Amino acid sequence: MHHVFSDVEGLRIAVEMERRGEDFYRRAAKVSRGQEMVALLNALAADELLHGREFQRLHDLACARKGAQEAYDDEASAYLSAIAADIVFPGGLMALRQEGFESPRPVLAAAIASEKDSILFYTELAACARDAEARATFEEIARQERGHLTRLLGRLAALEDEK
Questions:
Q1: To bridge 10 with a disulfide, which of 3, 116, 125, 130 should be the other Cys (CB 3.0-4.6 Å)?
Q2: pLDDT of 37-59, one tens digit each?
């Protein structure tokens, strides 16, 4: 069955994707033993938390523009979580565990892949947006995610330079 999204739902998914990313990094930090890795994972989690707060603000503004807060029932929330799960680290910790939590390279590579998927998703939402304000919001989210991607690529390049 194909689901038709509203612009507000797209923003709700953006918030959920950031929440899932933060949760992923926090859980990975708990199973990592290296101090440097724990610091990296917690920094990545903090980035996701900040993005999530910003996207929540944009979501709330969109709801206010529509004139009423949009409440999601349990089924809708579960559905949005499932969509976000397919984009943000679809294999979860188990997929990354194969690569190991003690090296920053596989963690950064997974983070970079997730950001790329997110950028594509938000770019598609912008293309499908029904009104100009929603389109601008999704474009802004994609822009912020590109900035995040650039920082992650910089961290990975710095590791490669240390070799």
A1: 125
A2: 889 889 999 999 998 998 898 88
